[in-house]
Specification:
Number of strands: 7
CATH class: Alpha Beta
Bound molecules: nicotinamide-adenine-dinucleotide
Radius of gyration: 18 Å
CATH topology: Rossmann fold
Distance between the termini: 37 Å
Shape: globular
Order of helices and strands: EHEHEHEHEHEHHE
Largest sheet: 7 strands, parallel
CATH superfamily: NAD(P)-binding Rossmann-like Domain
Length: about 260
């Protein structure tokens, strides 16, 4: 799937991994629809120019996301929408039982799973329905979906029951979705980032972030959002990448 002159919808585009991906794809000549709850997408779309549109949406809303996909299909013109890079998500930390013996908050658990997992399904189903209507391109493809998991799906730490479960669900959907959508010539991939330097990390205590960075075998640092964007672009252009989850983590295995 080529990037130039194609249209991509990016969620979580106001910040971190999503914003870096939007900038990279736009710089490579793509048209981009930037989706986020945060109004930062409006300024980013203005900066990226004519081929960029902002949509202030909640990814868990069926109606709002349908409108965003309609915007993307219209922006794509004859070619429609070529791909989705779904980065919107939240992190949460809570122990099953806190230090005073109280059980974890059930509403907070359900919120994390709803945004990260149900939200991913919402984005995937609407993306697939929109792209299944495309004519196949020169390489026979109709579209590509890239979801964002986390290494916490595999090596979740204490306090990450909600986050790990939500991201493990994203991992679990990759293969069945790729199998199903193969008949529409739509690929489905997921990236499982390690520890990346984005605003999301500000929600984790600084000493914990530094400890994680020190545990990365090589390079011994946090990942850069541009490195995520680089992999997203490679997934778009490489047609053999399908039904897989790629860890992007410098070799870290969290304890
Ligand atoms: N930063 C890391 O180290 C790291 C590691 C593993 C996985 N991830 C995952 O990568 C993705 C991007 O994270 P990031 O680090 O760029 O975080 P970030 O906080 O910088 O950006 C996330 C964006 O998602 C948006 N968002 C959250 N809930 C939303 C909703 N319901 N509807 C629309 N937009 C919503 C936020 O407004 C924000 O702009 C997330 O799914 C996160 O879980 C991040």
């Amino acid at each position: 799937m080529q990037v130039k002159e194609r249209t991509f919808l990016i969620t979580g585009a106001a910040s971190g991994l999503g914003a870096a991906t939007a900038e990279r794809l736009a710089a490579a000549g793509a048209k981009v629809v930037l989706c986020d709850l945060n109004d930062g997408v409006t300024a980013l779309a203005a900066r990226l120019g004519e081929g960029a549109k902002a949509c202030l949406v909640d990814i868990t809303s069926a109606e709002q996301m349908q409108q965003a996909f309609d915007t993307a299909v219209a922006l794509g013109g004859e070619r429609g929408l070529s791909g989705v890079i779904h980065c919107a998500g939240v992190v949460s930390v809570a122990k099953l039982v806190d230090r005073d013996g109280n059980p974890a908050d059930l509403v907070s658990y359900a919120r994390t799973v709803n945004i990260n997992l149900v939200g991913t399904f919402n984005v995937m189903r609407l993306a697939a329905a929109a792209m299944a209507k495309n004519s196949p391109d020169d390489s026979g493809e109709r579209g590509v979906i890239i979801n964002t998991a986390s290494i916490a799906a595999f090596d979740g730490q204490v306090g990450q029951c909600a986050y790990s479960a939500s991201k493990a669900g994203v991992v679990g959907m990759s293969l069945p979705a790729a199998r199903e959508l193969s008949r529409h010539a739509i690929r489905v991939m997921a990236i499982a980032p390690g520890v990346f330097e984005t605003p999301m990390m500000s929600e984790i205590p600084e000493d914990a972030v530094q400890a994680l960075a020190a545990n990365v075998p090589f390079p011994k640092r946090l990942g850069k959002a541009e490195e995520f964007a680089q992999l997203a672009e490679q997934i778009i252009v490489n047609p053999m990448l399908n039904g897989e989850v790629i860890r992007l983590d410098g070799g870290i295995r969290m304890q």
